Amino acid sequence: MPLEIASTARLAGALDRLPAAWRMPLLHLALGWAVLFLLTAGDWADMADQWWNSSTYNHIVLVPAILAWLLALRVPALAGLTPQAWWPGLLGVAGSLFLWLLGDISGVNVAAQLGAVLALQFAVVALLGLRVAAALLFPLAYMLFLVPIGDELVPALQLVTAKLTIALTIWSGVPAAIDGVFIDTPAGLFEVAEACSGVKFLIAMIALGTLVAHLCYRSWTRRAAFMAAAIALPILANGVRAWGTIYIAQSQGVEFAAGFDHIFYGWVFFALVMAALLGLGWRFFDRAPDDPIVDAGWIASSAVLASLSRYRISGTAALAALTALALAFALWGVAARAVDAPLPQQIALPEVPGWQLAGTASAVPWEPRAAGADRRLLGRYHDGAGREVDVFIAVYAAQAEGREAGASGEGALRPGTPWRWLAPEVASAGARGEWLQAGGRVRRLTLTWYRSGALLTGSNSRLKLATMASRLAMREEPTTMLILSAEERPAVSARESLTTFLDAAGPLGAWMDGMVRVP
Questions:
Q1: What is the pTM assigned to this prediction?
Q2: % residues pLDDT > 90 (the chain)
Q3: Hey, which of 55, 162, 177, 213 would disulfide with 223, CB 3.0 to 4.6 Å?
Q4: So what's the pLDDT on residue 260?
Q5: Residue 176 shares a structural domain with residue 234
Q6: What is the residue range of 189's domain?
Q7: Are residue 65 and residue 166 in the same domain, yes or no?
Q8: Cα distance between residue 445 and residue 308, in whole Å
Q9: The Methanolan biosynthesis EpsI domain covers which part of the protein (predicted)?
Q10: Considering only CA atoms, which of 483, 482, 504 is closest in space to residue 385?
Q11: Total domains, the chain
Q12: pLDDT over threshold 70, residue 267
């Protein structure tokens, strides 16, 4: 039998085994998901790339299989339900696509990817109905773990790990001093780097903990307690891991401790921590193995679901409406992304009273990264009294994927250089302040601002919101990133240099606007 005929026969047989009431709704769902996948294909490709190539998100490759298993557990309960398209679910699809659009046109990947996943979830509600969605509530919610999110926690986790590590190091009798995320010991200077923050293990444990809490507990109190343990235990364990590396280095050397860390702590230690979490939680499991995974009786008899289910619509109409929504948001996105602000042919650093431009030589070269900027400029000012300030300007005609002022790896800390993030700095004038360190001893204070329209802020989140608003309104507004920086020196502090420079420069908003004004 030819392969095409055999495949068609198998598909026909599978469809024949489906209850008649499910055949057309499942076809509508398949077509609806295909439309949404087509619209958001770029975001799904980006997510898949992160699942496969980023160690932080490798655990997500297991999530589709987990979702399929969770669905299989619910097949008996679903067989007793009759799917019916529900038009309020289309409002959820529209809201999800609006979130996707906001992220897509402003370059906020998390928003675009979250919107892409939410659109699939609400498509199930719209095309299969409220009762089916109630039976699939947990698998639908668990789909959110497909979104690769968590890197935003890295700086905070670095600081937490550093504080736990210094406390354990001193407690164990090793003399040590902490400076931000750097810990100085007799064996050497140790850095709690991004890779040591423990974020990858934390988010994997949250995904595992959520699954276990759902399958093994009925009590919401026990579920909450187990989730608290799933969050706290990996954070504490990561502090122990970092302390162990430092402690071993005191007697065995840094190289031996680093190798031991990657082999034992990187694989065995956290496997033991995961086993410990499950072992501690096992004695409190209160769901019997034969307990139904779905309360089909409640779904069938719920007065609330019965009342809400009255807002039904034909499956064909729901699919047509979903397709129209996808097309409308696609066209809106194309129009919004086409808007770029005009820029001058070149930009120049302005004059600052009492300060003169100087060379940019440094003991450790420093240059921020603004890969997607249309114009960029780096210069140094000095005032003749020993104060020196580096000024970096980057101008963007628009904010989009690959052209984001606040994207990961962009800004004051350029990846692949001797500079490392040390600690945050509470800065004035609305800036985002950060201390950087190179070579273990050279320190640099950086202040970052973003300018878009009337907005002047150091908050990347506020910039993203302003970008979203401008794109939706199709306004042409350039975005400027300004980074002021000074090295810490014995004769003059970095804070003093920057404060004096800011006082002389005057209002920063007007200063930045003047550089991007088109003649």
A1: 0.86
A2: 50
A3: 213
A4: 65
A5: yes
A6: 151-282
A7: no
A8: 57
A9: 321-508
A10: 504
A11: 3
A12: no
